[in-house]
Amino acid sequence: MAKQNKRAAPAPVAAAPAAEAPIAQADLPEIDVAMRAAILRRKMVNKQKTLILSSRVHTLEEMRLTGNALKGTRPLLSFDKSFDEKPELSLIRELLIQVIGTPRGHPRSRPFFDRVMTFSHVDGRIWIRNYQVIRTDNQRAQSAATFRTEEIGPRAVFTPIRIFDGSFQGRTLYKNPDFVSPNLYRRRLRMSQSVRYHQRKIDEASRVGRSTRRVMPEDPVDSTWLQEAEE
């Protein structure tokens, strides 16, 4: 009688979850629909990748503004109406909310707001400002209270470059047509400086040519007295 194998059978391996099907072009004929789908899928593991150029940053030490805020307070994020009108800005808004916004009830945050961060889209760039919210009580009316803002800093300016459908791959959902890379900008600047250099050399050569043409011819009368003195 054959000896039975008492070794336990291997546990069945769970099937791997099916990969997310690529977005078909026929299903999303417009790029706006892809933007909305990306916004709805922002909580998934395969998040969208956004390339942003930080073109200008001013620190607190550099600006020395009078505003101040408590440490650990939650910022109140304020976006202008352009973030509702353009789909690419709506996706960037969700990205900024997840990166900068503080979740409610976070153990290291305070349960109130005393500062506001504004995001404005002007000239194709995103301008970020940080303000302190100051409450000024009205002594004449006991129930009335007004609020004013005082800038804290820092300041930053972001330029959107491109938005991809996946984290490190996928088709392009948005591409900034007016974006000029810093390398291309420096190259154009060097070319303009080289053009000015060549033009300056041409002007110097023409100036030398004009100075040689202005030389007075030798007058034979001037050498007459010299010849008589030598004799």
TrEMBL record:
The keyword Metal-binding does not apply. Its main location: nucleus. GO terms for biological process: ribosomal large subunit assembly; rRNA processing. Keywords: Nucleus, Ribosome biogenesis. PROSITE patterns: BRIX. It is found in: Nucleus, Nucleolus. Residues 1-169 form the Brix domain. It comes from the Eukaryota. One of its GO terms (molecular function) is rRNA binding. Belongs to the BRX1 family. This is Brix domain-containing protein. It comes from Fonticula alba.
